[in-house]
Amino acid sequence: MNNPEYEKLVKSFLNSDFKKNASKNFSYLERNILNEDKIILPNNSQINDFICTSTEKKWPNFKTESFATDFIDTSFVRDLYVKHSFPLLTHELIVNLKNLFKQLKVKNIIEVCAGPGWLSHWLKIYGVEILKTTDNLEWKDFQNYLDFVECEDALQTITKETQAELIILSWPYIDDTAFNIWNKLKTNQYLLYIGEGEGRCTANIKFFKAVENHEIEINNINETYLQFFGIHDRVRLFRKKERR
Ligand SMILES: C[S@@+](CC[C@H](N)C(=O)[O-])C[C@H]1O[C@@H](n2cnc3c(N)ncnc32)[C@H](O)[C@@H]1O
Question: Domain residues for 112?
Fold first, then answer.
């Protein structure tokens, strides 16, 4: 960001007890989202009290100190949060996903490249059956994986779980992983993708080209999908059509 005022503020914040503040705000997310004892997730408005998000819709003036403060604080909070989960897990998101799966009439759901497994965990807590959750455990930033996460390569999971009707894939690397997963899918299988768009931080151009004509609009979910400020992830649904 080429704004000298902002740069000055960042420097002063880095020298202050800013990180302490961020860890205080992160501890709200930790206690309420990354916690196996909880049975309900915080909602958007509760989370918006602690961090700056893109769906808050009332962004303060960029040049004001309060904006910079919230923004930098949120970046630090995100740094801590992504050691556990990339998507912000909220009550609205999980309820919407549960309703979507019901509407699609899919029962056999798996999650691959799941990281520590918090998305699968919360879907299960809200009553969605997840057949299998896997990750190859190679992402070194994740420290704790939930017990049910099995160590397996995504392509192997998809090959083995032939009955899967929907595959969840959240925040895949910017390499061929998502593209290879899409190629492995059979006709009519759904892929629920959470991540950024083409040219950003998740998946690659080969993937976005391949899924181009297979998308099913689920804008209602994105209306309440909460993003960390400055992050452009969305929930997208693709269904593999028959080849002509
Ligand atoms: C950026 S993290 C996202 C984790 C999680 N889905 C989330 O949204 O928080 C990418 C994950 O993909 C996993 N991964 C990468 N390639 C994989 C593969 N071929 N098979 C299984 N897991 C893989 C990594 O270990 C890592 O946990």
Answer: 91-239
